[in-house]
Design brief:
The chain is an alpha+beta fold. 28% of the residues lie in helices and 13% in strands. The strands form two sheets. A four-stranded antiparallel β-sheet has the order 3-4-5-6, with helices on one face. Strands 1-2 form a two-stranded antiparallel sheet.
């Protein structure tokens, strides 16, 4: 959410630590101006933790994503022979309606923390990062899908279009426009921190398990059709970490040269 956090991650990676930097959409595209709105209902909807920062932090995070500063452990994907950097953009989706946010009208500490983002993520990342030329289409797929699946340890079942994968696919029209509004979004909340945002790049079709579930702005799913996806522990970030631990521990057991005290 901030330049300071991004710099700490960069320092850790420079030291060889396996750290994943995951900026969220609100941190990439918003600033704290909404928090200072005199209308409590408007200001409260922007309250989240960590907080949305002052102008400049979002642009710095965008640059960090595009230049590879906010990225995970340096890996070589299977069967490619090429280096790639793990990186992803999340949502931290945790939304509350205006009635719930009003719990803190007399005490800032009681405002429920959280903003929306799960419905808007794919559109906003495309509009902010791809349409502007900051990242490529391939990078877009990586930070929104592939790397998420790898970190959650469900790749290539998810995050890939391969034989045996789950056939979860979106069809995004880069020339189609979108507009975000609390009056038209699919959340039950009556607020949206991206209210009025107009951009390019709209998801027009969503396919889940080979079946079209979203088309022509219409949801086509049956109740109970969702499936629990088990996420095994120890993703690729743990590869070889035992050897690294042994090497580090061995370095702490270096022989000590002792000298006999002179009489």
């Amino acid at each position: 959410m901030s330049i300071d956090a991004m710099e700490e991650i960069a320092k850790a990676r420079k030291l060889g630590q396996r750290v994943v930097g995951e900026p969220v959409v609100s941190g990439l595209v918003l600033n704290d101006s909404g928090l200072w709105d005199p209308d409590f209902n408007i200001a409260a909807k922007f309250v989240m933790s960590p907080p949305i920062r002052a102008p400049g932090h979002g642009r710095a995070l965008q640059a960090a994503v595009s230049m590879g500063v906010l990225q995970g452990f340096h890996v070589v994907p299977e069967n490619t022979g090429k280096s790639a950097f793990g990186k992803l953009v999340g949502t931290d989706h945790c939304t509350f309606n205006s009635t719930q946010k009003a719990f803190g009208i007399d005490d800032f500490r009681k405002i429920p923390n959280g903003v929306n983002g799960i419905e808007e993520r794919m559109h906003l990342v495309w509009d902010t990062m791809v349409a502007s030329g900051k990242i490529s289409v391939t990078d877009y797929v990586r930070i929104t899908s592939t790397e998420c699946a790898r970190i959650f340890n469900i790749y290539p079942k998810k995050g890939a279009i391969l034989p045996g994968s789950d056939a979860d696919i979106i069809i995004l029209n880069p020339n189609s426009s979108f507009q975000i509004s609390s009056n038209s979004h699919h959340s039950r909340s009556d607020t949206n921190v991206y209210e009025g945002w107009i951009g390019k790049g709209k998801v027009e079709i969503t396919i889940v398990g080979g079946r079209i579930v979203w088309e022509n702005n219409e949801l086509k799913v049956n109740l109970g059709s969702g499936k629990y996806i088990k996420m095994p522990p120890f993703n690729y970030l743990f590869d070889g970490i035992e050897k690294a631990d042994v090497s580090y521990i061995s370095s702490l057991r270096a022989p000590v040269n002792r000298f006999k005290a002179m009489q």
